[in-house]
Amino acid sequence: MRHNDRAASAPWIRTRLRTAPGAATALAVLVLVTAFLAAAFPRAVDAYETKGLRHDILTADAGRSTLEVARPQPGLELPQAQRDAEARSPELARIGSGLLKALPAPLRADTSSVAYGVRTSKPAVANEPWLPRPEAVPPQLSYVAQSGLKEHATLASGAWPTTPREVTSDSREVQGAVTEETAAELKVKAGATITLLTAAQEPITVTITGIVAPRDPRDSYWSADPLLRTPSLVLDTASPFPVHYWTGTVLLAEDSGPALLSTAAEPVLFWRIPPDPAGLTGPDDARLTSVIASLESGPGLLKVREIAGDTAVFATGLGHIVEANARMRDAISPVIAVAALGIGSVAAVVLLMTGALIAGRRKAELALMRSRGGSLRGIGGRLLAETAVTVLPASALGLLLATLAVGEARWWPGALAAAGIGLLVCVALPLRTTLQHIRPTLHGAREDMVSARPSRRRTVAELTLLVLAVGAVAALRRRGTSTEGGTDLLVSAAPVLVALIAALVLVRLYPLPLRLATRPVARLRGAIGFLSLARAGRSSAGGALPLLALLLALATAAFGGSVIAGIGDARDDAALASVGADARISGASERATLPDELVRTVRDLDGVRGAAPVRVEYSVNMPESVAGDGGADGDDAGTSTGTGTGSGGSADDAKVAALVGVDPASYAELARATGLPAFPAARLKATGSSAPLPEGAKAGPDRVLPAIASPAVAARLGKEPRAIETLSGDFEVQIVGTVPRVASVSPTDFLVVNSAALEQKAPTTLLLTGAPDPGKLRAAVEGSGKEYAVQLRSEERARYVNTPMQAGAERIYLAAVAAGAGYALLAVLLSLLQTAPERKTLLARLRTMGLTTGQGRKLLAFEATPQALLAAGGGLFTGWATIVLLSPGIDLVPLALAGVAGSDTSPVLLRTDLWSLALPAAGVVALAAAVAGVQAWWASRRGSITELRAGDSR
3-state class of 544 per DSSP? Predict the structure, then answer.
């Protein structure tokens, strides 16, 4: 019997798939795309977190990322032979090999750049007369006998340092080498000798046998201690006067370490192990942090001391790099979770809508089976088998495509996501279909909202969901949306909650205004308006499920579009704050001025729309703060732009400010062209006591200049004239207005005056607007004969290149916007397809009554328009409400500016992007109209007899 049942079930599946191949194919494609997106999302997150961690480690300074084990020289109580043996290469190599084997997972070493040896930790003074002595201070040199010199350097001149005889603590002659940069700065040549004193003040002669060039200067072998490669001019902190001296490193022969044990330069034995991030993944950061903490002061350090000695210490900055990466990931994760939960909810709703559409199309067929004795279990089993045959291979193929598209990620999160999609469709479709047939239904009953009124159970369920969603939003609004470095499910579900509330409310209120509107429309001539409104008010296509899908998709697309737009705006603002205009020319030093000829030459270049010469003087001491809160008048010149880039300090903090001398007219034009706050040029007019001085004239003590200040400086100086001393002259200033930011200086405290009223008027900076050719601009600047710095806003903007983590998060949001728009359009199609047979039958009946083709198209378009407008309006509200709800707790700095040195890192809040709100909503309306028009055109091509067959219940 069982065998016969199995044999009977196979033809059913084949017959169904052959009967409706289009529906089965469409369902498979939808499941394939959804499973691909579901599986690709966790893999994409894993991939960009992995690449971000590896990128941060690889690009970090080697001095921070390298693992270093060091211990003091062997104890003086040991025999000299033993002390010498411990400082030679064989013993150091043995310990290094043991340390490499003892590294705990997931920490791995880059064995090609491992270095070990003996170095002095205290620089020794070199008194050779031929060494350079800036400010009469002799250089101080360090000495290192490090392994692998020949593998990591090439010989530029001379010979490699060697050990002709065995070096011991009693040796007084050793050989060494220096790099090309050290030789150039310290005037070292091959054959030169340097004296290093022992603890007993006996000289050790170090002969420089060769000059070497690093093969890869950025390799950790040379970068872990930059003095190995490049000498440095440093300030002598022990001197009462600000004097400088040279410091550098001499590279001794590899086995010369024992000679350093006799010096007073505090020699140490060391092993430098650069990490290899190639095997690390994003989820490894927690284990990596734990392992590093253990090596620094835990069980791992005990293991290190068993290998390297009881006095060994472990030091690295890798833990800080990993922690910074984790902080960025924790800051980005909540923003990504909003997109993930929103798109996931939309996909689930669209799949349920697909199941509802299939169930509606097969309702008559299954009702007939039920009336002929078919059990719910048997019908559900057949539907489950029929669905699984189509859905499960599509889910598996989606997982395979996601695995091929996104590599280097854990497989099980994507597998679970794809399996969840397949399980949802396999369970929801048979369950949704069979639940309609628990009780036999009457054939031909109306299904619109006139007769199919919501039951009490549904009303109670909707009210329960509504109360829970409103309570969750209220709690979210009360406690705030800050996640404090983690992902909060309630915060991430904000679009879903807002969309659920809007859908439940709108679907109940939607028919009421339409039914009220039918009364005045019924009095008009023609039946099109009345019929369209009446059908739109009764249509079952505007249910809660399609509306929820549309609202979720539009809200997620709007949120994602606003995030992407906010990232771009934040980078544009940061580039403008750094450069001050489209281009900037300034002197090599702060006090360097620009010649008038250069200003004229640059002003005449093609592409330059405006030029504003500016004199900037930093670190001008401000007078003592006035009692109370002074400041400019209430009619301040500017208003805050809300970008967070203005000066926000208090009067007590504004002890030092930048003096900015401008030409008011050109600078006001510059502010308008770059989008800065309006600059009140008229208030800086140089008249009366502030009239321009003749060339070379000195200002009197009673000279008062009007000034525009930052809010903090204005509060400090008050309303009365205050005296200041500057390199541009001594005068008094009176605050006549405030602006939150100016173009010539980065966000800081500032004081803007008319440059014509200064004793020293020569500009130090030239700000340009327009799009000059970078090559021609630099050529014109170089033609002046002096070195000037040229900064372009476009180049500064290009500095904000995405790190792998930022780029990955931005790609996910672009995909979220695209997926949200796609699912929104699909939801519109599904809702219209659900009632397509009914509309085609209506058109056929009305055509028999004299309805023309044009009137039929208008009827369907007018019928679909209210539902589309409802979805579009609800989507606009939902997207706006989601952004308003989440913006206080979302800072876009980690996505926009993190990792760029010198960039403004003040908070960048999420702002509503009108295009991201309007375009998806307009697309929904346009698609609904297009589908209705196509449907009317297609129906007009078919005869009425096809739609109105005898006995057809439609």
Answer: helix
Contact present, 141 and 247 (Cβ < 8 Å): yes
Distance between CA atoms of residues 613 and 766, nearest Å: 5
Q: Is pLDDT of 159 > 90?
A: yes
What's the longest Cα–Cα distance across the chain?
121
- Continuous segment of H or E residues that includes residue 118: strand 115-120
Q: Is 951 left (phi over 0), alpha (psi -120 to 50) or beta?
A: left
Q: Which two tokens stand for residue 683?
A: 């208030």
Q: What percent of the chain has pLDDT over 70?
A: 84
891 - beta bridge partners?
909
CA distance 437 to 368: 10
Q: Give the tokens for residue 587.
A: 């002197």
Q: Mapping DSSP to helix (H, G, I), strand (E, B) and coil, where does residue 28 land?
A: helix
What SS3 string covers 584-645? EEEECCCCCCCCHHHHHHHHCCCCEEEEEEEEEEEEEECCCCCCCCCCCCCCCCCCCCCCCC
Structure tokens at 425: 């469709």
Phi-psi region of 207 (alpha: psi -120 to 50; beta: other; left: phi over 0): beta
As given in the structure block, the two tokens for residue 416 are 């679970």
Q: Do 194 and 180 form a contact (C-beta atoms < 8 A)?
A: no
Residue 646 Cα distances to 47, 746, 752, 953, angstroms: 37, 9, 15, 70
Which class for 821: exposed (0-12), middle (13-18), buried (19 or more C-beta within 10 A)?
buried
Q: Are strands 704-709 and 729-738 parallel, antiparallel or unpaired?
A: parallel
Burial string for 876-894 (b: 16+ CB within 10 Å, else e) reads: bbbbbbbbebbbebbbbbb
DSSP classification of residue 283: G
Tokens at residue 615, please? 């004199």
**For residue range 55-77, what is the model confidence (pLDDT) as tens digits?**
989 888 888 899 999 999 998 88
DSSP 8-state class, residue 263: B
Q: What pLDDT, on the 0 to 100 scale, is given for residue 862?
A: 75
The 3-state DSSP class for residue 329 equals helix
Share of the chain above pLDDT 90, in %: 23
Helix axes 544-579, 914-941, angle to 10 degrees: 140
pLDDT value, residue 35: 94
Tokens of 759: 């004793």
- Helix, strand, coil shares of the chain, percent, nearest 5, are 55, 15, 30
DSSP 678: P
Half-sphere exposure of 544 (CA within 13 A, CB side): 17
Instruction: Number of helices (H) and strands (E) in the chain: give both, helices first.
Output: 32, 21
- Quote the pTM value: 0.77
Quick check: bond before 613 cis, omega within 30?
Answer: no
- For 312, 437, 608, the CA distances from 835, given in Å and listed in that order, are 78, 20, 61
Consecutive H or E run containing 35: helix 21-59
Nearest to 724 by CA among 761, 699, 692, 745: 699
Residue pair 271/69 in contact by the 8 Å Cβ criterion:
yes
Q: Mapping DSSP to helix (H, G, I), strand (E, B) and coil, where does residue 340 land?
A: helix
10 Å CB burial of residue 747 (0-12, 13-18, 19+) is buried
> What does the CA dihedral 640, 642, 644, 645 come to, rounded to 10 degrees?
-50
Long-range contacts of 799-804 (CB under 8 A, 24+ apart): 799/575, 799/900, 799/903, 800/571, 800/574, 800/575, 800/896, 800/897, 800/900, 800/903, 803/52, 803/55, 803/56, 803/898, 803/899, 804/48, 804/51, 804/52, 804/54, 804/55
Sign of the Cα torsion 366, 367, 369, 375 reads positive
- For 707-717, the pLDDT digits (tens) are 888 888 888 88
Per DSSP, what are the bridge partners of residue 790?
585
Q: CA neighbours within 13 Å on the CB side: how many for 567?
A: 22
Q: CA Rg, the chain, in Å? A: 38
Chain mean position to CA 933:
43
